[in-house]
Design a protein that fits this description.
Low-confidence stretches: none
Number of domains: 2
Oligomer: single chain
Largest sheet: 3 strands, mixed
Distance between the termini: 42 Å
Mean pLDDT: 82
Helix content: 40-55%
Strand order of the largest sheet: 1-2-3
Number of strands: 3
Radius of gyration: 18 Å
Strand content: 5-15%
Number of helices: 6
């Protein structure tokens, strides 16, 4: 490092993609640690690193020297869980609580996930029946054995969210 160099440390967000110069991508952060990262990034210079993740490799086990980029937060639209609470109350609350399958917080993850899938440019313009296998695979990677329970909530959010 030369005397004119600056050591900049950025938080890293592992993702299955990187950005080309001048491009943007909507990110839908629902895990608390990534929401905190967003708050930290916005409190500084809005930059963070994106590391191209490998399917099936845990984040902390990604090999060094992977492909990545620097991204900047330019706009934030918070996910509003109240948009989905009525759907939960009407369709899942009684049975879910009676069977001990979770409360609204459990379903909130499913609604966020469906909304996130809809906003993903890879799936723009696609029908649910086309992307459902991808949704199931992604969901099961994060939440093993729970797809059948949350599938309809994910689908509802997919259908309700608008393509971007």
């Amino acid at each position: 490092m030369t005397s004119s160099s600056v050591d900049v440390r950025l938080p890293i967000f592992p993702l299955g993609m990187v950005l080309f110069p001048g491009t943007s991508a909507p990110l839908h952060l629902f895990e608390p640690r990534y929401r905190q990262m967003l708050a930290d990034v916005r409190a500084k210079d809005s930059r963070f690193g994106i590391l191209c993740a490998l399917e099936g490799v845990p984040e902390r086990e990604l090999p060094t020297g992977r492909i990545g980029c620097v991204a900047e937060v330019v706009d934030v639209e918070p996910f509003d869980p109240s948009d989905y609470r009525e759907h939960y109350e009407t369709n899942y609350a009684t049975l879910s609580q009676a069977l001990g399958l979770g409360d609204f917080a459990s379903y909130e993850l499913a609604y966020k996930f469906g909304s996130e899938m809809r906003m993903d440019r890879r799936f723009a313009g696609e029908r649910w029946s086309t992307i459902e296998p991808n949704a199931k695979k992604s969901w099961e990677a994060r939440n093993p054995g729970t797809w059948n329970h949350f599938q309809e909530a994910v689908k509802h959010a997919w259908e309700r969210a608008k393509d971007r």
